[in-house]
Amino acid sequence: MTAKPRLEVQNLIRAFDGKRVVDDVSFTVLPGQVACLLGPSGCGKSTTLRIVAGVDMQDSGRILVDGKLICDTHFRVPPERRAIGLMFQDFALFPHLPVSENVAFGLKGGFVANRARVVELLERVQMARHIDSYPHELSGGEQQRVALARALAPRPRILLMDEPFSGLDERLRDGIRDETLGLLKDEGTAVLLVTHEPHEAMRMADQILLMRNGKIVQQGAPYNLYNAPVDRQAAAFFSDINVLTGCVQGALTETPFGRFLTPGVPDGKHVEIVIRPQHLKIDFDRAGQGPAPTAQNGTAALARVVRARYLGRESLVEFSTDQGGIALNATVPGVFLPPAGTPMWLMLRRDRVFVFPKT
After folding, report:
1. 77, 126, 276, 309: which is deepest, by most CB within 10 A?
2. Neighbours of 61 (CB within 10 A)
3. Which of 233, 249, 284 is where one domain is finished?
4. Are the beta carbons of 158 and 29 closer than 8 angstroms?
5. Residues 194 and 280 in one domain
6. What is the pLDDT of residues 232-264, one digit of tens each?
7. What's the pLDDT at 298?
8. 295 — phi, psi (to 5°)?
9. Which of 354, 8, 4, 56 lies closest to 192 in space, CA to CA?
10. Residue 337 sits in which domain range?
C-alpha cells in the first residue's frame, strides 16, 4: 500500500514583473521523508518554500497537507494554522529569552507538559545543559541545535528548512547534518529542505528536486540524479565534468577515445560526451610509450600533463590531448604529481559516460 503524501504541491506558478520565478512546479513529500529543493541562487526554490509556508501567495496552483487543501488562488489557510514548522539559516532565536523559553515559544499546553517536551528535545540535541543559557552565550552549532528543537517542539506535520546549515563552520556541518537527520527521522516529520549545495542534498535527502529557471528539471533519489542526469547541466551541478564535443555521422561520433554510439541523433548534429574526472583512468606504466593500451570498448587517448595538484585526499591532474589539444581533468586517489609535459595514455569507462544532444 502506497503511503499518502503529507505534502502535495500541484502546478505552482509565481511571477514577478511578468517573469515566472516558479514555473509549474509539482511534487509530493511523504511522512518521514526528506525532500530537497536543490539549485543555484535565483532558481525559485526559496520562493517555492515561502509559498508552502504561507508567507507568499502563488498566482496559480494548489497546496495540500494530508490530502486537505490549505491554499489555492481562492482559499488560504493562515500560516500559523498550517501545522508547518520553519527553520532558517539565521536561526532567528529570540535574544532576550533563555533556551528553555525559545524552545517552548510555539507550545500551547500547560507548563508541566511544555517543560517536559522542552527537556526531551534539548536532551536529544545534546543541549540540556544549556537550558538556562541565552542565545548570545552559544556557538553557531549550539544555536542551530536549539533552533531545530524549537521548530520540532509543536510536532509540526511538515518542517521547512531554508539553507539551515550555511552559517555553520564547514568542519561542523556534516556532524550536525547527521544529528539533525536522525532526529527528523525519529520524529517522523516530512521535511522540505532548500539548499544550493549538492553535497548537502546528497547527504540528507531521500528525494532531490533539481530546479533551474523556476522549473523542476529532474527529481528522484540522489543515486538516480547522480548516475542518470537528465542533461549536461544536471551532471555538472553534482560534480566537475569533462566535455567532448563531436558531430554525429551514421549514429556514431568520433572522439580521441574512439567512436561513440549516438542512436537517435540525426547526422550533422553535435553531441556532448560528458565524463567525470574520477572516471578518466591513467595508464601509469606505459606513460605514453609504445602502442595505445586496450581500453574498455574503445581506444586510449594520448595526452600530456599540464599541471598536477594535491588536494588532500586525491590529486587533480590536468591534461591536454595530443589529438586536438582537448583539456581534460582526472582525479587520482592519494598523491600523484607527474611533471608538466609527461605523456600518458588516458582511458575511460564507457558505462560511466553520458551523451547529450548539444544545446
Report:
1. 276
2. 19
3. 233
4. yes
5. no
6. 999 999 999 999 999 999 999 999 898 888 888
7. 58
8. -105, 165
9. 8
10. 239-357
Residue 287 counted as domain residue: yes
- Encode pLDDT of 152-179 as tens digits: 999 999 999 998 888 777 777 888 888 8
Question: Nearest to residue 93, comparing CAs of 174, 164, 159, 160?
Answer: 164
d(Cα 213, Cα 297) in Å, to the nearest integer? 38
Domain count, the chain: 2
Strands, E assignment, 48-157: 60-65, 68-71, 84-88
Mean pLDDT in residue range 14-43: 95
Q: Does the pLDDT value for residue 293 go beyond 70? A: no
Closest CA to 330 of 351, 315, 344, 350: 315
Residue 162 domain-assigned (yes or no): yes
Asked, for residue 1, whether it belongs to a domain, the answer is no
**32, 173: one domain:** yes
Q: Are 156 and 85 in contact (CB under 8 A)?
A: yes
Can you say whether the dihedral through the CA atoms of 98, 103, 107, 110 is positive or negative?
Answer: negative
The torsion angles phi and psi of 120, rounded to 5 degrees, stand at -60, -50
What pTM was estimated for this model as a whole? 0.88
More confident residue, 169 or 327: 327
Has residue 12 been placed in a domain? yes
Q: What is the CATH number of the domain that holds 59?
A: 3.40.50.300
Residues 311 and 183 in one domain: no
DSSP secondary structure code for residue 293 in this structure: P
Q: Looking at the structure, tell me whether residues 24 and 58 fall in a common domain.
A: yes
Residue 323 pLDDT greater than 90, yes or no = no
Q: With CA atoms as reference, report the closest residue to 201 among 154, 236, 238.
A: 238
Rounded distance between C-alpha atoms, residue 57 and residue 172, angstroms: 35
pLDDT at 109 over 80: yes
Query: Three cell numbers at 45?
Result: 526554490
Strand partners of residue 249: 252
Residues 233-270: b if buried by 16+ CB within 10 A, e if exposed: bbbebbeebbbbebebeeebbebbbbbbebeebeeeee
34-64 confidence digits (pLDDT tens): 999 999 999 999 999 999 999 999 999 999 9
Q: Are residues 85 and 155 in the same domain?
A: yes
